Each structure stands twice: as structure tokens, then as C-alpha cells.
Amino acid sequence: MTPEINFPPFFEDEAKSRNEALFHVIPAPFEETVSYGGGAAGGPSAILRASDQLEEYDGIDVPAAHGVWTAPPLPCGDGPEKTLAAIEKAVAETLAMDRIPILLGGEHTVTLGALRACHKKHGTFGVIQFDAHADLRAAYQGTPYSHACVMRRAHELGLRLFQIGVRAISLEEVEYRRENPDIAYLDGAAIGRAALAGKSLPAPLLPPDFPDTVYVTFDVDGLDPSVIPATGTPVPGGLSWYQALFALQRCIAGRNVIGCDVVELAPRPGDHASDFAAALLAYNLMGMIAREKKK
To answer: What one-character DSSP code corresponds to residue 254?
Structure first.
């Protein structure tokens, strides 16, 4: 199989090979455990199409100049176990080449496959999660592989978590946080209260003992629905666009980012803004990661 379109397509004439490109974009159109609005399976292709409208220059430099190779969409129709195995294999191949996987979901469950591959190569590391939901349930709707459980599975791998933007959380998840104080967080309500008081995001944002090696997972419902309404479980009161970018910069600064993902875009007819915002988010992440690599 070949990708529907390269990310970003404006570098096709100068595209670097898989071996040369710093970033490997891996589309994972998995959608099986969504619990509200559907459509996440269309997220990767919508992001790839929208990347056609990106500017090469991200405001600081040209992330695409480091090379972006786009993989064919992964097979995602045989249940979560097989899908996660396929994602893990693809990400492991990228990591073996000392390249950076950029996973495009699909529902948030896909992140677990990437984390398993990263865990096998790097051991323990930190996971920085932008999300409206904590995703810390033991199981949801009869499966431990629900998108509502992915961070519980990550924590069970022994990974450190930092959650930012959560504003829809169950009592079970609140208790799990209390029982596991190594899970750090800055929830949406705290961010909102600080903004009303004229205060910016804390600096530093991450706990002082948070690992230097990190993986970034960005569920687009972490943003306010006014920024990206096209997602299966929108929650009001989310991060603004620039709050999210500033938070990402503070989280990534001085750290080794081994991979990232953008998940839970559920494209809707006529809503090009959501697709473009998700593509721009992925591209901005590449720029931040590449600049830290230079340092």
C-alpha cells in the first residue's frame, strides 16, 4: 500500500527517503471503542489532506526540511489486539532507525501500541497527555482497550504521566490518581481559574522529577471545541490554541521527545477548520521536536 498523500505534500519534489527523514508519519485509522460521536477512523486521512494547505514556515523555521516520510495506513480492522500489534511493529521499526514516529489516529487506543514500542526500546519515560479526559479507567464498556482506558494501560507499563486539560473525569479515575501520586496533572478548571485571574501557565510546567525522555500524546478534545469541534467527545472549557502551543513548548523544552501522536479527530463534512488545525498541530509538534534535537 502507498499513502493517500504525503505529509506535507509541498515537499514532494524534495522528499527525503524513509532512511533520511527525521519524522515518520504513521496513519492508524482505528475506530472500534468510541463511546459517543464516531468518525475517528477518518482522522488520519483528513489530516493528511489538510496538510496540503500548510505553510512550510511554522513561524520559526521549516520543520519539513528535516524530512517527513509518510507510511501507508496501517491495517486497523481486526480488533484492538491486532491493531495495537501492527502499530507497535511500525513504531518499533521507526525507533530502530533512530527516527521520530508521528502517529495519527484514530481513537486514542492507538497510543498504546506506540507506547509499547517505545517502552521496549527506552524503558521508562514520561508521557505528556493533552486531553479533556483522564483515560484512567480499568475498563470501559466491557473492554480494557477502550479509548477511555489508554492512560491506565500506559501507567501499568511503569510510565510516568502528566495530564493537562482534563475536565471530564470519573470517580474511579479520581481515586486512581489519589492512589498513584506519581500521576501529575494540571486540569482544565485550574487553567481556567488562572486565566480569569490574569495568570499564565505555570513555569516550569512539569514536575521537577519528571523524566527527560518523553512521549507526547495529544487528543484533540484537549483543545476547546471552539478550536476543534470535530471530535467524538467534545467538552467545553478546553485549552485555547496558543495555550496549547505554549504548554507544549514548556513541556518539550530541554527534553528528548521519542515520539508523539495526534488522535481523536472525527472529521465532519464542510468543517475544514478542524482538519487543518489538527494538521497544523502535528506540524508544529515536528518543529518543536526538531529544534530541541538541534540543541
So the answer is: T
Helices (H), the chain: 43-50, 80-96, 110-122, 150-156, 171-179, 188-196, 241-252, 272-294
Distance CA 82, CA 84 (A): 5
In what side-by-side order are the strands of the sheet with 126-130?
68-70, 23-28, 100-105, 256-263, 213-219, 126-130, 160-164, 183-186
Report pLDDT digits (tens) over 62-107: 999 999 999 999 999 888 999 999 999 999 999 999 999 999 999 9
Cβ atoms of 133 and 148 closer than 8 Å = yes
The reply to whether the predicted model has a pTM over 0.85 is: yes
Domain range list for the chain:
9-294
The CATH number fitting domain 9-294, selected from 1.10.10.10, 3.40.800.10, 3.40.50.2000, 3.40.190.10: 3.40.800.10
Helix (H, G, I), strand (E, B) or coil at 294: helix
